[in-house]
Amino acid sequence: MRKYLFTALASCALLCAPVNAPAQDNGPKPLFTEPITKQPKGRMVKNQVRKALSFYTDVGGANVDSVDYYIGNYVIGDDDCVYLKNPFTFFPTQSYLKLECLNGDTLVAHMPQAIFINTEEIPYYASRMVLKAGSQGMTYGFEQNADGTYNTDMRFLFRGDTLTLIGEDNVEGDYPKVILGLTTLAGIWKEAGEVELSVRPTDKKPLSLPQGVKPQLYQLSHTGFYGDATDLVEVAFADNKVYVSNPYSTTALQWAEGEIKGNSVVFARQYLGPNESDGYHIFFVPGVYSETAPDFFDLADTLRFNYDNTAKSLTATDLQSILINVGDRRVFTAAAYINPSLSPYTATAGKPANPEITSFGRYGEEAEGEGYLQFEFPSEDVYAQPLFKNNLYYKVYTAEGKTLTFSPEKYSGLDTEITEVPYGLNDNTDFFMADDSHKFYFFQAADSLGLQTVYKGEQELSSDIVWTTGRTTTGISQPAISQTAAEVRYYDLQGRRLSQPRRGVCIRQRVMTNGSVANDKTIK
Questions:
Q1: What are the two backbone dihedrals, phi and then psi, of residue 14, each rounded to the nearest 5 degrees?
Q2: Distance (Å, whole) CA 87 – CA 95
Q3: How many alpha carbons lie under 13 Å from residue 160 in its C-beta half-sphere?
Q4: What's the rounded Cα separation, in Å, for the pair 232 and 35?
Q5: pTM for the structure as a whole
Q6: How far is CA 415 from CA 115, 210, 250, 279, 412, in A?
Q7: How many CA within 13 A on the CB side of residue 208?
Q8: pLDDT tens-digit readout, 193-232
Q9: What is each CA distance from 243 to 164, 263, 279, in whole angstroms?
Q10: Angle, CA 114 vertex, CA 110 and CA 119 arms, to 5°
Q11: Among the listed residues 244, 250, 261, the one whose alpha carbon sits nearest the alpha carbon of residue 207
Q12: What is the predicted pLDDT for the residue at 287?
């Protein structure tokens, strides 16, 4: 891993410059001023391996970190262009950088290209930037030629399904000389950038269960950073192999394979698969917890469980740990399970606990009811017994009692229509989840919505339908009517009042007829 600290690059020339500084009269003209946010027509190539030196902002400066096994996606367009999604590793824009065919397997990105619009509707651009002296130290800016023109193009090589940013004379002292950077139209660098970027196919395949092998629920007990914890996983046995599902994944089942050796079961490092919601390719990596290690864990070659063949249970000791890790060569954990033990889970699932709606937002009278629903989604039944998250879904109902359908036409993260949303669905665009906290956006008129949890285990079980009008939530099966908003006001994140909600995050303030005030954040 290479990591640099750019103390000079964190100067006020970058952080304190006005974001809406006027464009230079003779500055480079953008290729286009609206980001490409809709997937271009063509073939999407998903879940490739992204590797780069990527800038991110940290306390005291801009840093560059070497990244590998991040997810990279691109579209091979019907127009013979290639569109790279999220060109900046640490600043995902949910948009595309357009690469045009130059000759043979060489592509070119003509820039600046609009790539992101902030909450004040000011566009940011993907630009070619060079290291130069600024008023308060070294920074990145446009490169201007003696004749007044600008060098704005960056070339890519597209060969064998691998997309690579072609490097230039790219080291000046300790700093990359030329970067793909995030800028304002005036050329102010916003401390996101890429060097040595490549997007390649993975040479690893996730494991599948042997045909005919049926897993069963197990209880995974372990120590976490906040104390003892329990999760549910699936475990299967076949010949001298033990298969354990990834406890971190709550959508697709991903499997790790261990080998039974007498009274032990031994697991080695192995690939689990892509985790699209986090944007990583993840691995099952053995580790040992250590308070003195830089990242709290030392990597190990194997994880050895004590194995009880009669009880079919596995127990690890001595601070051995399961690391759900990005890559398998350095500690970069998505989740960690210290002193894990696995034992059969025999409890019978009961009726799922009701979801708790925490916010129902709409974007004003002119928005045709479009908005969002935010809620807590308990992963347990009414008896407080845990439920296997991979078997949990939620359904949404309209005021007429019809099930809401989520389609790819409105939800870009979906491949097919669904009426039951998996617990773990998180595309960071329309569906969000963080543990039991969930949120989704809807794009149709909705005076009220109902929400229901569905568990698909040995038998299908459902919670009550919980209804909300945005003013009152009730657990009975019909919407309730309560206090209404006499006035709705919108503010930006700096507290300035807006005439109407803008794209991005803003604060909604509702003044109720009884005089009470409710504030929440909305995203448009």
A1: -100, -50
A2: 8
A3: 5
A4: 42
A5: 0.80
A6: 24, 27, 18, 18, 8
A7: 4
A8: 999 999 999 999 999 999 999 999 999 999 977 788 899 9
A9: 37, 16, 25
A10: 165
A11: 244
A12: 97
| 512 contacts 486 by C-beta, under 8 angstroms | yes
pLDDT digits (tens, 9 = 90+) for 50-65: 999 999 876 666 788 8
- pLDDT tens for 317-344 read 999 999 999 999 999 999 999 999 999 9
Three-state secondary-structure class, residue 9: helix
The H or E element spanning position 12 is helix 12-15
140 CB contacts (<8 Å, ≥6 apart)?
A: 9, 129, 130, 131, 132, 179, 181, 189, 193
pLDDT, residue 489, reads 66
Characterize the bridge pairing of strands 356-362 and 431-434.
unpaired
Q: Taking the CB of residue 185, how many other CB atoms lie within 10 A of it?
A: 22
Beta strands in 13-120 (DSSP E): 42-58, 61-77, 82-85, 96-103, 106-109, 113-117
| One-letter-per-residue 3-state SS of 395-421 | EEEECCCCECCECCCCCCCCCCCECCE
- The span from the CA of 290 to the CA of 15, in Å, is 37
Whether the predicted pLDDT of 130 surpasses 90: yes
- What letter does residue 16 receive in the DSSP assignment? T
Cα distance between residue 241 and residue 256, in whole Å: 10
Predicted confidence at residue 120, as pLDDT, reads: 82
- Do residues 393 and 383 make contact, with C-beta atoms less than 8 angstroms apart? no
- Residue 232: which of 416, 389, 349, 449 has the closest Cα? 389
Residue 487: pLDDT band by 50, 70, 90 thresholds?
A: low
